[in-house]
Amino acid sequence: MDPKTREDLLKLFQGKLNEAMTFYLETCTRCGVCIEACHVYASMGKVRYIAAYRQEIVRRIYKKYFKARGNVWPSVGDAKELNDMALEELYEAAYSCTGCRRCMVYCPFGIDTQMIMSIAKLLLVGAHSEPEILTLLADTSIEKGKSLDIFKESFLTGIKKLEKDVVKKWKMEAGGTPIPMDVQGADLLFVALAGAHSIIPTAAIFNAAGENWTLSFFEAVNFGAFVGDPGRTQLILDRIVKEAKRLKVKEVCICECGTAFRVMKQLAGKQPFKVSSVTEVHARYIKEGRIQLDRSLLNGVVTYHDPCQIARNGDVIDAPRYILKHLTNHFREMSPDPKYNWCCGGGGGLVALGEETLDFRMKSSKVKADQIKRTEATTVVTACENCHTQLCNLNDHYQMGVDVKFLSSMVADALVQK
Amino acid sequence: MNTLYYFVLIPMVYFSFTVFFVGTGIRLVKIFRKPKQSTSLQIYPEKRPQWLWALHDTFLFPSVRKHKPVLWIFLILFHVCLLLLMIGHLELFGEFRIFQIIPHEVFLGKGFVGLILCLAVLFFLFRRFLSPVRELSVPEDYYLLILLFLIVLFGSQMDWARRWYGYEELLVEDYRTYLLSLLTLKPELPYNVINSGHSFMLVLHVFFANLFLIFFPFSQSMHSFLSLPMNKLRRG
Amino acid sequence: MSEEMKIAKVMDLKGLPCPMPILKVNKGIKEVEIGQVIEVWSTDPGSLSDFPSWARTRGHQILKTDQNGDVTRFYVQRIV
């Protein structure tokens, strides 16, 4: 690595050193309480997957360049130089971490490994060593935000084609629009993923509840967050914020996507609209009696996988359980305490990297598969696209023989037409 | 020899306390003046009031109790004994009525506090020799524990000598004279302090304590100040 | 755009959810020569906006988009 590159990368590093990050980098006592916290370590048993070890990969560089000690006595903290080999280590640490923050629950100080890994990810972006796919997807999202007018028409036609499927799930009165778009003054802006499965069921539920809603032109997922690029993350987020303000909606409802929800809820800052997850909105409809569900459709034990970014990191814990109570009498918890739920193993962009990471994802999530098997459930429900894909992969790999379902589509299927 | 004793017991003490207070102070001010994290770092579900739970997490280590109960026992013993010894040292400066609510001879705990602390430090140290904590540890972690062990061992020796073997040459009054003279910036070394049979222990105790104080602001020991704000971030 | 546009490769991405079509086409286009055209079939509604945005960021050109029922056919020319 040439000195200029190193200098640039260290500038990026410096930019991440706010108060909280400095707490996290200064404090670890390497006590080892986090050892059993990481699903990758619990499944694969390699020391490099222990949270404190991952952190130390970043912390060693911090000790070298950002502590006076790094010049005087680097060996006392195993300070390491930032070079090509360090970049490889950073890659391995950051892209084997799903950012689930389960270790943060274990740490006596509450060190946020995901946040420390965001330094690793940013350095990789700076060195152009990040997974190209994630940058590609992030750039595509940003481009879509920049030139909405060019794609608007074709996207509208695409959405029109989905409407017949929405009506199949919930018959509307004549003249209604099954998937309203671009509605000024709608109460709720629904930000979905660009796939039919993410739009159709929830559209039917909105119509059943008589919601005054409108569908966003943009997909919710934030690939910028996966790749750890704050600039791109913000640009992708801004598209939706701008749209919500333009339409003057009261509420932005994020589809079943963990990253999207966390980014929108915690990164958008103070806005004139409220941010909710689709799960919270559906629970509200049931509570207010706006939709009725048929409880007789499901047989066998049903369990729910809490997506890390939505439950532990996003505070949507009771809503899915409330909904499931209206869908089945045979609900069984997966983990005695949702904040200790194992990550599915697909977060942090690993699922988006597709087959490239499949082998690792399967090996690193053995504990998740075991946890699901222990519930003896026949249906595993979740509320996150990433988790869903990963759980389906696990189901195939470990031959669990379960049905992996989205909570929203279960609600849509159980709608009782009055 | 006397010059060496003098150097360790007076100039080096002043130096290390300066480094400790100024270093820790400057470092903390620098850290707390950095820009605040703009987004939430909270873990859910939330419990209120959050500041009370943050205090609970900081001082009772509930996550350690849950996941490593043996370590937790030693951690609690270690930190409680550390606190008791700090009180003990304050009492070497003079009488504090507040500490005498439970009447005791100076250095609470009849010598057992130091003993427990020694054992706890040894436990931490040997724990670090076992995988996988060994792979996580860096030299700093060992150095700090070894330093602490030496400090506590030599310090406690003086206490044990008086308490357990009836060695009465170095008395609380001698320490008081010495420490108060340091505090009032008129340093003097009473005859007993440097000429009794156990003076070398005092000198070694102070020497290692000086090293520890000098290293403190630049080491992971800063967790003593940062733990509370970090736990507050997690609690929201 | 001539009627006899030569297709170097056809990619059937029907049924794949977002973002798989983009990932596949991004890989697929690298397997043809610069200047050649690939034909891509997708059923993912997001593709209608994703493909043009992807092409713009990566400097490729979408020559034609045909919609036929649920299936959309894109004709993409590799430029770089």
Any key phrases for this structure?
heterotrimer, A: 418 residues, alpha/beta, Fumarate Reductase Iron-sulfur Protein, Chain B, domain 2, Rossmann fold, 3 domains, four-stranded parallel beta sheet, 8 strands, C: 80 residues, alpha+beta, Translation Initiation Factor IF3, four-stranded mixed beta sheet, 2 helices, 4 strands, 35% strand, globular
Provide a descriptive summary of the structure in words.
With 418 residues, chain A is of the alpha/beta class. Chain A has helices at residues 3-15, 19-27, 39-44, 51-65, 69-72, 84-94, 102-106, 113-126, 132-146, 148-160, 163-169, 196-208, 223-227, 230-247, 258-267, 278-287, 318-325, 358-364, 366-375, 385-397, 407-413, and strands at residues 188-191, 213-215, 251-254, 274-277, 302-305, 331-332, 379-382, 403-406. In chain A, the strands form two sheets. Chain A has a four-stranded parallel β-sheet with strand order 2-1-3-4. In chain A, strands 6-5-7-8 form a four-stranded parallel β-sheet, with helices on both faces. In chain A, helix 4 (51-65) runs antiparallel to helix 6 (84-94). The longest helix of chain A is centred in the middle third of the chain and has 18 residues, at 230-247. The N and C termini of chain A lie far apart (68 Å). Chain B has a single domain (42-235), classed as Transmembrane di-heme cytochromes, Chain C (Fumarate Reductase Cytochrome B subunit), CATH 1.20.950. Chain B contains twelve helices and no strands. The longest helix of chain B is centred in the middle third of the chain and has 26 residues, at 139-164. Chain C is of the alpha+beta class and 80 residues long. Helix content of chain C is 26%, strand content 35%. Chain C has a four-stranded mixed β-sheet with strand order 1-2-4-3, covered by helices on one side. Chain C is globular, with a radius of gyration of 11 Å. Chains A and B meet through helix 2, helix 4 and helix 7 of A and helix 4, helix 7, helix 8 and helix 12 of B.
